[in-house]
Every structure is written in structure tokens, then in C-alpha cells.
Specification:
The complex is a heterodimer of chains A (338) and B (291). Helix content of chain A is 34%, strand content 18%. With 338 residues, chain A is an alpha/beta fold. Chain A has two domains: 2-64, Phospho-2-dehydro-3-deoxyheptonate aldolase, domain 1 (Alpha-Beta Plaits); 84-333, Aldolase class I (TIM Barrel). Chain A has an eight-stranded parallel β-barrel, surrounded by five helices. A four-stranded antiparallel β-sheet of chain A has the order 2-3-1-4, with helices on one face. Chain A has a two-stranded antiparallel ribbon with strand order 5-6. In chain A, a hairpin with a 2-residue loop joins β5 (84-86) and β6 (89-91). The model of chain A has no long low-confidence stretch (mean pLDDT 92). Chain B has 291 residues and is an alpha/beta fold. Chain B is 54% helix and 13% strand. In chain B, β1, α1 and β2 (34-38) form a beta-alpha-beta unit. Chain B starts with 8 loop residues before the first strand and ends with a helix. Classes of the chains: A alpha/beta (338), B alpha/beta (291). The A-B interface holds A 11, 14-15, 18-19, 21-22, 27-32, 37, 40, 42-43 and B 42, 45-46, 49-50, 55-60, 63-64.
Chain lengths: 338, 291
């Protein structure tokens, strides 16, 4: 909190304010603003210090909270956790939502088969990429609209909601005709045109953290969408680039816990991209649940060795089933269900 | 990318005589971009702020240190080692960290433990007054004072340059020395005189308990030779404990000379005594002229 003194405030008045800060057990900093003295209140829980302590004191012009650059996404805006409803899942509620499916929709049979398997194991949302942001123009780019149709068919057959990636503004209408949740990939975390456009839609948006993005940038991305009018945003930690090359990315477990502190939006975890290794996905999934994640996004493929993309980080159906069982006590231990 | 002092944000931790005087020089001379002061007590924070010596005054260490280009540790010697550990996590790479402690070897060892990228350099401005605290501070304290710099192996040339620039800017005379060598030298010309002054005061006090008149007769001679005995005890305790070996060595050297003088006097060896005293008189006169 900042206390702004009146212009030309008297020394005893300034001393009195500093003394009050000290009495409240906080530390202080004094600086000269434009023609007036600024007193900062510093300390753990300083947001618990009430403005009322200072506003009536002699010489005080006003008090101000130090604002974060994001507002709608901030816990200051909403103390209650936001819950985003899609058919079959209340995202952000007590029950942790599992979104599972292949990295890409490869064929009708494959997506239908996978949809049944993941539903069986306890997932409530089906993922599958129809438009893929590949690092190479020669890699499989996704089935496009055909893939979307198969996802919709899988929804019909199983009752699972679907989530799929939209890569650009001109795909929004097309993808929006099929999907329940728009997924924004890591590489589009700062594609502000896309975010602004998604802000004008009425569908939930699943926003991934940038590959080398900060938590603040992630929240500002959410802010972009929300300021357009669409408040249904969930944010996802998917691993960040670090100097460590043993894993594809470094899953930032700190982010899960910190985001739960900073924002009321549902916090999601993607341990598949976060590690790049299927063998690590179970442990990191458990860590994310223990740290407070509201959503787990997992890549599941009937035969990962034959996957057209990201096979190395995909679980097979048996592995996914096993993980879901193992996650139950972990969720229970932190007061959640899965 | 070399920084110039005028572009730097300087944080001084410890607003006693040394720290506050440095702030005053920097602020009054507009020598740098911003001056921040960190003190333990809010009374000092207020004093520093109202005096205009700093742009920002705080009792919160991270607030004072965050984003600083130069951090000066002007707290008592034994607190410096703890301070170094405390500030470590809040410094960005490239920050120059310099202390003002009167002993260097132990402090330089602590400075070396700062996170990689931080640029430490030992410092010791050789000036001061017997009085301590913010109230004794004033601009110009460092004029013509030798300011020893003891770079570590990891200290870059650019850092040495910037530290030198700062000492010159406040009118001091930078001297680059190796840490152990510095400690031996200051044991000789600073720590030894202090202990001698202390012993002198004890001796005169003892005489004074027999005859109080001694105090009425005490004038310039006593004043000059006992002056440093009035130095801050806590500060000197820190010094003695961190420079013990070198100080003991100097005390032994002194003891040899005073014993020699006593022997010559006891034996009434006038010629030898006169020679000894003339030698020291000439040495002292020579030092005064060159200083």
C-alpha cells in the first residue's frame, strides 16, 4: 500500500504516519514523489493493512493499493474461484477435470476408440487436435475440418465435451461451430489479435502459457480475453524452456501454486508437454494435483509408438487408466475429487 | 557494457557516519541517478529522509536493494558478513557490491559467496571521526582520504573502474591492495594506535585516581595522543576480532620498541635514547610533510 501525503505535509505528520506503520508491524519506505512525500507500507500480508488506518491522519492525501497490471483475472476482482461449465464438467470446482485424448485426430476410428477409452477411465473432456501448430511445415498439419467432424461424432457417442486448438482469427468461426472449448496453444499466448477475437466469443477459452513466457504474461493473455467480454478463461502451465535439456520442457510446479494465489481462474496442468516423456507423466500429474491444479490435460493414444505427433509423451489407454486410479488418493489428500 | 556512476542507482545500507556522509556527497553533488538509504531504525529512516540525504529511505532491505546498480555496505564489520548473505537473493547480475569495513580478508571471503554475476569488491575508506551515527555525518568526509579497494579474483576490470570512479567522485584517493596486505597495514597504522590510546587512557586514569589534578593539567599532548581512544568500542571490537592475528603481531612489534626505550631510560643511556627519539621525530616530521 502507498500513502500519499498532501503537498507540503509537515514533518510531524510524516513521522506520525511512519510511526503508525511501525506499530502495525510493517516496514516502510519514504520517497519524494512529484512535490509530495510517498510512504510505502511493506511486509507480508501488507494487503491486510486497512486504508482506514491512515486515511484520517493529518497530512495524508490518499492511500493506494499497488496494482497488478491484470485486474479481471486477479483475485482482487473475485475472491471466489471461477467455475466454468461445459456439458459434463464444472471446471474449477471440487472435482478435478481430466481432459484426455490424442495429440492429433488421425482418423475417425482412432478418435472414436480413444474417446470411449478415456471416458471409461474417468475423463470428462475429450481433446484432439485438428489444426496443429507443428514446428516444421513438412510435419502433419492436422485433418482440418474433417478432424473437427470426427470430434463432434465422438462427443455424440460418448457425451464428452470437446476441446481443440484454434490457431488464427479466421479459424474461430469454423472451430467454434464444433468445439465446446477453444484451446490457445503456447505459441499463441501473446497473439493479441487472436485473444481479442476470442474475447468476443461466448465459448470457454483454454489458454496455455508461452514456451518461454512468464506467469504475468500468461495472466495478461487471460486479461486480453476477459476484457473483450468473455470471462470464461482457464489457464494452463505446460512446461517452460530452461537450460535443462534432459526433458522437453521444465514443468513449473511453482506456477500451479502461485496461480492459485494470484487468480480466480481455473488453473490447468499439462504434464505431457511439460515433460515430453510418457514415463514422467504420472509423477508430474500427481504433483500438479497435489499442488492444487483444477484441470489435468493428458495426451492419450491407442498406440503411442504409431502416433503422428507427440507419441513420446502420450500415455496408452492402460497407462491412462492406471494413472486415474492412482490419482484418486492424491486428490483426496488435498480435499478434491477426480 | 560499462556503467557510469551518473547513470547508477546507488543503495547505501547503514546510515551511520560513513554511510550517511556518502549519501550526502552523492546527493549534493548529483553524482548518480538515485540514492537510496537503508537503516534498521525508523528514526534513522526519517532523519535521512528529512535531511534530503537520500531519494528513498527505508528499513526494508529488499526494497532498498532491488534494482540497484551499486550497493554499499556501511554497517559495522561483523554485521557486514550477515548483510552479504541477506542481500544476495535480491541482487541482479552486474550489481556492484562494495563494503566499507575496516578489515578485508574475512569480508572478501564472504563477498565471494555472492551469487554468480554479482560483482563484489572490498572497500575501506580510511577516514572517520570518533563520533558515530547519522548525527555526525556530513558531506566532505572522504576528501583526500585514502580509500582502499581490494578486488576479488572474480572482480571484473569494469567493476574496479566503477568503484574507482565512485571514490574519486567523493574526493578520496583510491588505493588497490590485496586483502591480507591491507589487513596487516591497517593493523599497524589504525588498530595499534587505538589500543595504545586505550592503554594510555588507562594509565593516566590510574594516576588520576591517586591525584585528580592530572585532568586539569591535561592539554594538547594528552588530547592528541588519546583522541582515538574515544572511538566507537563496538566498531573496534569487530575490527580486533576480525583482524586479531595481524594486530597481535603489531602489538609485539610495538612492545619491543617500548621495552627498548624503557631499558635505555632505566640504564640512563642518554646517547642511545636521544638517537632513538630523534629517529622517530624525523620520521614523524617526514610523514606530516608528505601528507
Amino acid at each position: 500500500m502507498i500513502i500519499v501525503m498532501k503537498q507540503g505535509a509537515a514533518q510531524p505528520d510524516i513521522e506520525a504516519v511512519v510511526k503508525r506503520v511501525e506499530e502495525l508491524g510493517k516496514k516502510v519506505h519514504l520517497s519524494r514523489g512529484e512535490a509530495r512525500t510517498i510512504i510505502g507500507v511493506i511486509g507480508a500480508d501488507e494487503h491486510m493493512v486497512s486504508e482506514a488506518n491512515f486515511e484520517v491522519m493529518d497530512g495524508v492525501e490518499k492511500t493506494m493499493r499497488v496494482m497488478q497490471p491484470y485486474k479481471l483475472a486477479s483475485r482482487d476482482f473475485s475472491q471466489e474461484n471461477s467455475i466454468i461449465n461445459v456439458p459434463g464438467a464444472a471446471i474449477g470446482g471440487k472435482k478435478i477435470v481430466v481432459m484426455a485424448g490424442p495429440c492429433s485426430v488421425e482418423s475417425r476410428e482412432m478418435i472414436l476408440e480413444t474417446a470411449h477409452m478415456v471416458k471409461e477411465a474417468g475423463a470428462t473432456v475429450l481433446r484432439g487436435g485438428a489444426f496443429k501448430p507443428r514446428s516444421s511445415p513438412y510435419s502433419f498439419q492436422g485433418m482440418g475440418e474433417e478432424g473437427l467432424k470426427y470430434l463432434a461424432e465422438a462427443r455424440e457417442a460418448t457425451g464428452l465435451s470437446i476441446i481443440t486448438e484454434v490457431m488464427s482469427v479466421d479459424e474461430i468461426d469454423l472451430v467454434g461451430a464444433y468445439t465446446d472449448i477453444f484451446q490457445v496453444g503456447a505459441r499463441n499466448n501473446q497473439n493479441y489479435s487472436l485473444l481479442k477475437a476470442l474475447g468476443k466469443t461466448k465459448k470457454p477459452v483454454f489458454l496455455k502459457r508461452g514456451i518461454s513466457g512468464t506467469i504475468q504474461e500468461l495472466l495478461m493473455g487471460a486479461e486480453y480475453i476477459m476484457s473483450g467480454g468473455n470471462m470464461q478463461v482457464m489457464i494452463c502451465e505446460r512446461g517452460i524452456r530452461t537450460y535443462e535439456t534432459s526433458t522437453r520442457n521444465t514443468f513449473d510446479i511453482n506456477a500451479i501454486a502461485l496461480l492459485k494465489e494470484l487468480t480466480h481462474l481455473p488453473v490447468c496442468a499439462d504434464p505431457a508437454h511439460g515433460t515430453g516423456m510418457a514415463s514422467l507423466v504420472p509423477a508430474i500429474s500427481k504433483a500438479a494435483v497435489a499442488a492444487g491444479a483444477d484441470v489435468l490435460m493428458l495426451e492419450v493414444h491407442p498406440d503411442p509408438k504409431r502416433a503422428w505427433s507427440d507419441g513420446a509423451q502420450s500415455l496408452n489407454p492402460a497407462g491412462f487408466s492406471k494413472l486415474m486410479t492412482e490419482l484418486r488418493p492424491i486428490a483426496a489428500a488435498v480435499g478434491r475429487e477426480i | 557494457m560499462s556503467k557510469r556512476l551518473r547513470d547508477c542507482s546507488v543503495t547505501v545500507i547503514g546510515l551511520g557516519l560513513m554511510g550517511a556522509s556518502l549519501c550526502m556527497d552523492l546527493t549534493q553533488g548529483k553524482l548518480c541517478r538515485e540514492v537510496r538509504g537503508v537503516a534498521r531504525r525508523t528514526t534513522t529512516v526519517l532523519e535521512a529522509f528529512f535531511s534530503g540525504a537520500v531519494d528513498l529511505a527505508t528499513d526494508d532491505l529488499p526494497t532498498g536493494v532491488q534494482g540497484a546498480d551499486i550497493v554499499i555496505l556501511a554497517t559495522p564489520v561483523r554485521t557486514i558478513v550477515d548483510m552479504i548473505q541477506e542481500i544476495g537473493p535480491h541482487l541482479q547480475p552486474g550489481t556492484l557490491v562494495m563494503d566499507m569495513g575496516s578489515t578485508k580478508a574475512e569480508i572478501c571471503q564472504a563477498l565471494d559467496a555472492l551469487p554468480p554475476g554479482v560483482q563484489p569488491i572490498g572497500g575501506h575508506p580510511m577516514c572517520g571521526k570518533e563520533t558515530a551515527g547519522f548525527g555526525s555525518a556530513g558531506a566532505g568526509l572522504y576528501l583526500n582520504a585514502p580509500w582502499v579497494l581490494t578486488p576479488l579474483a572474480r572482480t571484473s576490470a569494469a567493476t574496479i573502474e566503477l568503484a574507482t570512479e565512485l571514490t574519486l567522485a567523493v574526493g578520496a584517493r583510491p588505493v588497490i591492495l590485496e586483502a591480507q596486505r591491507h589487513d596487516r597495514l591497517v593493523a599497524s597504522i589504525s588498530h595499534l594506535p587505538f589500543l595504545l590510546a586505550s592503554a594510555l587512557v588507562h594509565a593516566v586514569s590510574q594516576t588520576g585516581t591517586d591525584d585528580e589534578m592530572v585532568w586539569k593539567l591535561a592539554a594538547g599532548g594528552f588530547r592528541d595522543t588519546s583522541r582515538v581512544a574515544a572511538s566507537d568500542t563496538r566498531m573496534f571490537m569487530d575490527i580486533l576480532m576480525t583482524n586479531r592475528t595481524a594486530v597481535l603481531e603489531q602489538l609485539d612489534t610495538f612492545t619491543r620498541h617500548i621495552t627498548e626505550i624503557r631499558t635505555l631510560l632505566a640504564q640512563t643511556d642518554e646517547a642511545a635514547l636521544r638517537d632513538k627519539l630523534t629517529l622517530s621525530q624525523q620520521a614523524r616530521a617526514g610523514w606530516k610533510k608528505s601528507g
